[in-house]
Write a structure and sequence with these properties.
Elements lengths: L8 E3 L4 E3 L3 H18 L6 E7 L6 E7 L15 H9 L6
Antiparallel strand pairs: 1-2, 3-4
Length: about 100
């Protein structure tokens, strides 16, 4: 006899997939992240997260908007440090 898998069920009231426990929802989160990377899907400023639903009491996975940290500014991405220094010092790169 083959083992039975407990599959998540779509909950029409919450309009999301219902998970009985947090571990099952985290498993779906990992699977969705792998799927998104494999298919090239970009979530932009959103990240997948697991949360407890107040309506049904189960766990759901959703894409939430992540706000950047206050006061943090990401600089330009450069391949070579000398190009970065040349761009910010005002002079030509030393080669």
């Amino acid at each position: 006899m083959s083992p039975q898998m407990i599959l998540p069920v779509f909950d029409p009231a919450c309009r999301r997939v219902f998970h009985l426990d947090k571990l099952g929802a985290q498993g779906q989160l990992v699977a969705l992240e792998i799927w998104n990377r494999a298919t090239g899907r970009d979530l932009g400023a959103r990240r997948l997260t697991v949360y407890r639903c107040t309506r049904c009491g189960g766990y759901h996975v959703a894409a939430k908007v992540v706000q950047p940290a206050l006061g943090f500014k990401q600089g330009p991405v450069v391949d070579r440090p000398e190009d970065y220094l040349a761009a910010h010092s005002g002079g030509p790169p030393a080669r």
